[in-house]
Automatic annotation (TrEMBL):
It is found in: Membrane. Keywords: Membrane, Transmembrane, Transmembrane helix. It holds the Pfam family TRAM_LAG1_CLN8. One of its GO terms (cellular component) is membrane. The keyword Oxidoreductase does not apply. GO terms for biological process: lipid homeostasis. It is a multi-pass membrane protein. It comes from the Eukaryota. This is Putative TLC domain-containing protein-like protein. SMART domains: TLC. The chain crosses the membrane at residues 36-58, 78-98, 110-129, 141-161, 167-188, 200-220, 256-280. It comes from Hapsidospora chrysogenum (strain ATCC 11550 / CBS 779.69 / DSM 880 / IAM 14645 / JCM 23072 / IMI 49137).
Length: 325
């Protein structure tokens, strides 16, 4: 599949990053660097001024009273909402229409490349580039943990430009199908809608999408990518495999670097473990919102987990807070 992005590669931008790409063996990044930059600019504009303008219009009684730190956190959730909806829709579209991707062998799933999969990779990298910049400029708000997450996620997504497991980029992005419901849940809490019927229905959608996309769909494909990596360590591609157009960037006898495989698999396994942990914590948090209060004041733990995206990334944050029932 050809890259569906409507803007062609920018020659001067590709030449600018070419030395770095050669040094770190990011072979396909020059073809998609303009998409990474475009995504980062899009999310920057959503963060400011679009989010403040829309939030002042839709929730003037809530947004205008927020202090600086909570307002920045609100705007970051707006970006997360836009990013998750956009990239989920594009990932589903690529999975459905990319016939070349669908016909890939295990060798092509490891070393192969299609423009559609690379576009998803680039948009995800652009989001984490934006995340890294915003977190660095507002470290007092988002904390060192979020900064570490942004750096690690950007590193992992960049591996796809070697290319490496380019095939799996739209699959693991679909873990984010639960993120819109999580953001809605978060906004309802901030707007005084905790415990409402609307939040209950959204909670069912959140738990159902999280269980289906992350625990079932995600765990199964984590098993698949581990199997492909295992085959790659035992049988590198031969010359007969390189005639495929999707293997245009692979070399005969290519191997997967140990550090790259460990970085990808360790982050994937870590997130899979946390997915199960988060699921049970979310069940507990949703239940507490709808349990009758036993007294005038009953502490309720609100577990916030910003699940931004990704294919094989590290959790952004999980910050417990207490609120009155």
């Amino acid at each position: 599949m050809q890259d569906p992005f409507p803007i062609p590669p920018v020659p001067w931008l590709a030449e600018l990053v070419q030395p770095w790409c050669d040094r770190f063996n990011l072979t396909t990044l020059p073809l998609h660097i303009h998409e990474v930059v475009a995504a980062a600019l899009l999310y920057s504009v959503v963060f400011w001024p679009i989010s403040p303008l829309i939030s002042h219009f839709l929730a003037p009684d809530h947004y205008s009273k927020l202090p600086r730190k909570r307002r920045l956190n609100w705007d970051a959730h707006v970006v997360s909402m836009v990013q998750s909806c956009l990239i989920n829709a594009l990932a589903i579209w690529v999975i459905l229409v990319d016939d070349e991707r669908r016909a890939m062998t295990w060798e092509e799933r490891i070393w192969g490349y299609t423009g559609g999969c690379a576009l998803i990779q680039a948009l995800a990298a652009g989001y984490f580039l934006w995340d890294l910049i915003v977190t660095s400029l507002n470290l007092d708000v988002f904390g060192i943990g979020t900064l570490a997450h942004a750096m690690a996620a950007l590193l992992v997504y960049s591996l796809g430009f070697r290319p490496l497991v380019n095939y799996y980029s739209p699959i693991f992005i679909l873990w984010e199908l639960s993120t819109p419901f999580l953001n809605i849940h978060w906004f309802m809490d901030k707007m005084g809608m905790t415990g409402t019927r609307a939040q209950l229905y959204n909670g069912f959608l959140l738990l159902g999408s999280f269980f289906t996309c992350r625990l079932l769909f995600g765990t199964y494909h984590s098993y698949c990518v581990m199997g492909d990596f295992w085959r790659a360590t035992r049988s590198p591609p031969g010359i007969e495999k390189l005639v495929s157009s999707s293997m245009a960037f692979a070399d005969e006898g290519a191997t997967v670097p140990v550090w790259a495989a460990l970085a990808y698999l360790s982050s994937n396994l870590t997130l899979n473990f946390l997915n199960f942990y988060w699921f049970f914590k979310m069940i507990s948090a949703v239940r507490k919102r709808f349990q009758p209060a036993k007294g005038a004041v009953e502490p309720v733990t609100e577990v916030e987990v910003d699940l931004s995206t990704v294919v094989a990334s590290i959790p952004e944050k999980a910050q417990p807070r207490r609120r009155k029932a």
